[in-house]
Design brief:
Chain lengths: 364, 288
C-alpha cells in the first residue's frame, strides 16, 4: 500500500526535434486509489506508466512510491507489479511457475510460494489450470494469469497497461467488473492505462486525461463529465462526443447559427464584441421540441438506433460544411433521415463554454 | 500440388503424379548409389574392391571390419571416434553458449557501436576460412596449443561462427520484448533474463546451431589435418586418410569399413535430431 506521486516528471525521446512524450507530469495517486490514465494514442499514457515501472527513463523531475524517491531505482526494487497488454506470460513455464517466478527469484521459501500461488489461483478461478502452459489457455484465462502474477507479489502498486484490449467485448465487460472488485478487495493502489473511456469512467476512482504528454485534468468520472476543464477533455470524455462549436459572441450571447444562447455576464465581460467562443453541448443535453420558438431547425442526416435511445445526426439549414450536430433522442420515436426537426437545449446549465483560443473552460 | 489435383479428380491413373514419383525415386537412387556402393564394398574381399564393378560382393568378408576396428598406427577406432566426439561435442557446447550470448547482446542489449559491430560481425561470414588460416596457426603455435584439441574447440567458445550468431539474433528478435520487461520487473538482471527467459525460448535456434555445428565439425578434415599430428590425437577423418597413406593396397577394404564406422554416429545423430532440425527451421516465433 502506498501513495504514488509524479513530480514534474518528463520523458524526452531524442530526435529532431526531440519529442516530449510525457511533459511535466504532476500527479498524486492516493493510497488504495484506482487511478485511470486515459488519452488518445500517442498521448504518453503508457510512457507515464512505464516511467513509474522503471522501464522508461525519467529525464526530468521524479517519481515517488510511498515516501521513497524511486526515480533512479531499478524496477525490481520499486515494489510494483505490472500487467501487460500482451500479458507477457513466459511461454515455457506453467501457470504456477509464471505466477511464482518473481517470488522464486526473491528466494522465498518454496512452500510459501506454493501457498501464495494457490491463494491467487483460487481468487482468480485458475486452480485447475496451474499445471498448464499459457499456450493451452484461452484469452480470458491468460489475462487472469497475468493478474495472478501481479497479485502473488503483493506489491504496493499495481500497474496495468491496457490489460483488457485483447479480450472480446463481452469478456471485457465481465473482466472490467472483476478487476474493479478485486482492486477494492485488495485495496492496492492501482494505476490503469486505457484508451477506452468507458473503462476509464466505470473503473477509476479518479481519471487522469492526457493529451500530447500533458495532463489535462484529473478528477472523478462524474466531475470530468460534468465540468471538463477544457475543450479537449470535453470532446474526449463522453460517447458520442460532445458537440463543440466555435461561434461568434454577441451581446445577446453565443450565436449558434440562428439561435442565441445566453452566456453568463462573467464570461462576456472583458471580451470585445467580435470575439469568438467555443460552446459545448452534450448530445443528451439537446432534445427535439415541437415549437419552432427559440429552437434550431435541423435536417436529419442519419439516425443510429441503439434500442433504448437513438443518435440523431443532423445539420442546421444555414450551416455550411460543418460536423453534424448529434442529439440523443428517444429510441421509441426516432425521426427519419431527410426530415426537419426542431432542436432545443434542455437546460442552459448543461452548456459548456470554452475560450476559443486556449480551449480553457470559462466561468462556471 | 500435383498430388492434390490427382486426389480431387480421382479419374484413372494420374500420369503426372506417377511420373513425378518415378522421377523422385530415380534421383534418390542416383544419390544413394555411392552410399550403397560404400556399404557393399566394405564387405568385399580385398581383390574385388578395385577390380570388380559389381555392387554386391561375391562373398561377405567381415575381416575388413576386424582390421578397421584395430584402428590405425596402434590407435583403436574407439579412440579415434572418441577424439572426434570430444572435438564435436566441445564445438557444439562452445557454439551454442557463445553464439547465443553474443546474439542476446546484439538482439537485446544497448551499447555503443552496436550497429557497426553487428555489421562487422556479419562481414566475417564472407571472410574465407583460408584467409585467416595462417595467422590463426601462428597465434595457436605461439600459445603452444598446436597438436592439441584447443585450436579446434576454443574458437567456438568465442562466438566466431558469425552465421550462427546471425541466425540466433534473428530468432531472438522475434521474441516479444514484453517478456524481457516482465522479467525485469520480476527481478531479473540481463544475465538472468538471458538464462531463464530468452535461452529456453530460443531452443529451436539453438538446436539448429547444435546440429549444424556437430555435422560440420565431425565431417571437417582440413583444420584437424593442420593442427593434429600425433596419431593418438587423430580424429576418425584423419585416420581414414592415413589408411591410404600408410598401408599397402590391400587395405582398401578396411578403409571402406572404417568409412562406414565413421558415418554411423553422424547418421544416428541426424536421425535423432532431424525432427528438431525441421522444427528449428520452421518455427518462426513464440506466441505467448
Amino acid at each position: 500500500m502506498a501513495q504514488v506521486a509524479y513530480n514534474k516528471a518528463a520523458r524526452v525521446f531524442g530526435g529532431t526535434p526531440p519529442v516530449r512524450a510525457v511533459d511535466g507530469l504532476d500527479l498524486t495517486v492516493d493510497d488504495g486509489e484506482f487511478l485511470v490514465l486515459v488519452g488518445p494514442s500517442g498521448s504518453g499514457k503508457s510512457t507515464a506508466l512505464r516511467m513509474l515501472a522503471g522501464l522508461e527513463e525519467i529525464d526530468e523531475g521524479g517519481v515517488q512510491i510511498g515516501d521513497v524517491d524511486v526515480t533512479t531505482m531499478p524496477p525490481k526494487s520499486r515494489d510494483i507489479a505490472m500487467v501487460f497488454q500482451s500479458y507477457a506470460l513466459y511461454p515455457h513455464m506453467t501457470v504456477a511457475e509464471n505466477m511464482g517466478f518473481a517470488l522464486k527469484l526473491r528466494r522465498i521459501h518454496k512452500q510459501e510460494v506454493r501457498r501464495r500461488v494457490e491463494e491467487a489461483a483460487e481468487l482468480l478461478d485458475l486452480t485447475s489450470y496451474l499445471d498448464r502452459k499459457p499456450k493451452a489457455l484461452s484469452g480470458g484465462q491468460r489475462q487472469r494469469v497475468a493478474m495472478g502474477r501481479a497479485i502473488v507479489r503483493e506489491p504496493s502498486v499495481f500497474l496495468m497497461d491496457e490489460p483488457l484490449s485483447n479480450l472480446d467485448a463481452k469478456l471485457r465487460v465481465e473482466t472490467r467488473a472483476n478487476i474493479a472488485s478485486l482492486q477494492r478487495r485488495l485495496g492496492t493502489t492501482t494505476i490503469y492505462v486505457t484508451h477506452d473511456q468507458v473503462e476509464a469512467m466505470t473503473m477509476g476512482h479518479r481519471v487522469a486525461v492526457l493529451a500530447d504528454g500533458v495532463l489535462q485534468q484529473c478528477e472523478t468520472p462524474r466531475e470530468l463529465y460534468e465540468r471538463p476543464a477544457n475543450a479537449f477533455v470535453a470532446g474526449f470524455i463522453g460517447s458520442p462526443a460532445m458537440n463543440l462549436r466555435t461561434v461568434p459572441l454577441t451581446p445577446e450571447g453565443a450565436e449558434l447559427d440562428e439561435v442565441s444562447i445566453p452566456v453568463p455576464r462573467a464570461v462576456t465581460s472583458g471580451r470585445s464584441d467580435d470575439s469568438e467562443i467555443t460552446i459545448g453541448i452534450r448530445p443528451e443535453s439537446l432534445h427535439l421540441v415541437s415549437s419552432e420558438e427559440g429552437s434550431l431547425p435541423l435536417q436529419v442526416e442519419l439516425v443510429e438506433e441503439l434500442g433504448a435511445d437513438c443518435l440523431i445526426h443532423g445539420r442546421t439549414l444555414t450551416s455550411t460544411n460543418r460536423d453534424p450536430l448529434i442529439i440523443r433522442g428517444d429510441g421509441r420515436t426516432p425521426p427519419t433521415p431527410g426530415e426537419t426537426v426542431n432542436v432545443a437545449v434542455r437546460d442552459l446549465e448543461e452548456i459548456h463554454l470554452f475560450d476559443a483560443g486556449s480551449g480553457e473552460r470559462l466561468a462556471s | 500440388m500435383v498430388a492434390v489435383r490427382g486426389s480431387i479428380t480421382g479419374r484413372g491413373p494420374d500420369w503426372g503424379r506417377i511420373g513425378l514419383h518415378v522421377g523422385c525415386l530415380a534421383v534418390l537412387l542416383v544419390m544413394l548409389y555411392p552410399l550403397a556402393w560404400l556399404a557393399a564394398t566394405s564387405f568385399k574381399p580385398a581383390d574385388e574392391v578395385i577390380s570388380s564393378l559389381r555392387l554386391l560382393p561375391s562373398r561377405i568378408e567381415l575381416g575388413n571390419y576386424a582390421t578397421a576396428l584395430e584402428g590405425v598406427g596402434g590407435v583403436s577406432v574407439l579412440r579415434l571416434i572418441g577424439n572426434s566426439l570430444i572435438i564435436s561435442v566441445g564445438a557444439v557446447l562452445g557454439n551454442v553458449l557463445s553464439c547465443s550470448l553474443a546474439a542476446y547482446a546484439f538482439a537485446r542489449l544497448r551499447f555503443t557501436l552496436r550497429g557497426p559491430l553487428f555489421a562487422l560481425m556479419l562481414a566475417t561470414i564472407m571472410l574465407p576460412q583460408h584467409a585467416v588460416l595462417i595467422p590463426q596457426y601462428i597465434v595457436f603455435n605461439q600459445l603452444g596449443m598446436v597438436n592439441t584439441f584447443w585450436p579446434l574447440v576454443l574458437p567456438k567458445f568465442l562466438a566466431t561462427d558469425a552465421f550462427f550468431v546471425f541466425l540466433t539474433v534473428q530468432f531472438m528478435r522475434g521474441i516479444p520484448k514484453e517478456l524481457d520487461e516482465a522479467a525485469t520487473l520480476d527481478g531479473c538482471g540481463p544475465f538472468r533474463t538471458f538464462f531463464r527467459i530468452i535461452l529456453p525460448l530460443s531452443r529451436p535456434a539453438l538446436i539448429t546451431t547444435a546440429i549444424f555445428t556437430f555435422i560440420w565439425t565431425w565431417n571437417d578434415f582440413f583444420l584437424q589435418l593442420i593442427y593434429l599430428f600425433e596419431p593418438e590425437k587423430f580424429t576418425i577423418t584423419l585416420a581414414l586418410r592415413s589408411f591410404v597413406d600408410t598401408s599397402s593396397q590391400s587395405a582398401y577394404g578396411p578403409m571402406f569399413a572404417m568409412s562406414v564406422i565413421a558415418l554411423l554416429p553422424i547418421v544416428l545423430f541426424f536421425m535423432a535430431f532431424q525432427r528438431f532440425l525441421v522444427q528449428g527451421m520452421a518455427s518462426s516465433g513464440v506466441k505467448g
